[in-house]
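Following the same procedure, sequence and fold were stored together, as reproduced here:

>
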Amino acid sequence: MAILEEIRSNFRTFGEGLSDVQEKTSDISDRLGHVEQKLDQGQLEIKAIRSVLPTLATNKDLEKFSEEFNRRLTTLESAR
């Protein structure tokens, strides 16, 4: 209730203090816009990472693949 009294006292006559409120509201709106842009960019980055994630392999995975491939290739070469 105290906040309503404070608002009422700030606007004793019509339009008094309105420009300050509009300026603050505009500033908040601009700041929200910037935050929204950053969140959108973050979402795009997360989507890109998520799409690449399944294709990532560790060095150990690559070594294991290389060893297995080499073993099978050796088997094929010795079968000739």
Remarks:
- Helices lie at 2-10, 18-52, 59-79.
- The two ends are 93 Å apart (CA to CA).
- DSSP finds three helices and no strands in the chain.
